[in-house]
Design goal:
The chain has about 240 residues and is mostly helical. The longest helix has 18 residues, at about 120-140. It has a two-stranded antiparallel ribbon with strand order 1-2. The chain has helices spanning about 10-15, 20-30, 35-40, 45-60, 70, 75-85, 90-95, 100-115, 120-140, 145-155, 165-170, 175-185, 190-200, 210-215, 225-230; strands at about 205, 210. The chain is built from 15 helices and two strands. The protein has three domains: about 10-115, no CATH class; about 120-185; about 190-230, no CATH class.
């Protein structure tokens, strides 16, 4: 697998925050009474509004892009504003939020603590994830499937997903290790007798007029027993 395998569009899709229907809004962006108690502990309408959005984004999607204020759909903002009983949603609330980096960092820290999430820690997480990827890759080595499963795992484990490029690199670099792991797991089967049989499969068969391996790869011309049994046999002169 190449280290980078996603197209630009696919990479953007992982960071996309789509417009949601009513059912999805209720599922992902409804503030519980406990949520409201937590949010109301912060000063200012702007802070409370934006902290509510970040809380729900992390809980529903498992990640929070640095430019989430630009990516978030308008109907999500309006739904949140209605829950906070804001008579009219003002787009400037988002523009005004987080002018101080220390405030944004503190808010995120408190949100993660409330949700019982934690940040991605490369030194701690990468060895564990690489081992997990090896196991999943033995079942299915499609890199896009593995990347999707990895994102789901991080969400389930309540680890704030890092940049998708980071995960893409990890998945893309696991291919060679999968080959090594497969060989290691099958080594005990490669007895001298089996190796001799496998070598013979590659030898040229005079009756078939082709290597046995090639004959085994041929497909029958119909779904009858005769056709299947005779597949690859040389025709009579």
């Amino acid at each position: 697998m190449p280290a980078s395998f996603l197209t630009i569009q696919e990479r953007d899709n992982y960071n996309h925050i789509p417009k949601l229907d009513e059912e999805q809004l209720l599922k992902g962006f409804y503030l519980t009474s406990t949520d409201k108690i937590f949010v109301n502990g912060f000063n200012g309408t702007t802070n409370r509004f934006c902290i509510s959005l970040q809380l729900c984004l992390i809980r529903y999607y498992g990640f929070l892009e640095d430019n989430w204020k630009i990516l978030i759909a308008e109907n999500i903002e309006e739904f949140m504003a209605s829950q906070m009983r804001m008579k009219e949603f003002d787009k400037n609330l988002l523009n005004d939020y987080g002018r101080r980096a220390m405030s944004r960092s503190f808010h995120l820290q408190q949100i993660l603590k409330y949700l019982q999430y934690r940040r991605w820690e490369p030194i701690l997480d990468e060895p564990i994830i690489e081992k997990w990827l090896l196991e999943r890759g033995m079942e299915h080595d499609n890199e896009r499937w593995l990347l999707d499963k990895l994102c789901q795992k991080l969400h389930y484990d309540k680890i704030l997903r890092p940049a998708i490029n980071t995960l893409e690199r990890m998945v893309g670099s696991i291919g060679e290790r999968l080959n090594e792991e497969t060989y290691q797991r099958l080594t005990f089967l490669l007895t001298p007798e089996l190796q001799e049989k496998l070598d013979k499969v590659l030898e040229f068969d005079k009756t078939l007029k082709m290597p046995t391996h090639r004959w085994l790869c041929l497909q029958p011309t119909s779904n009858t027993a005769k056709s299947i049994n005779r597949c690859g046999e040389p025709s009579n002169p």
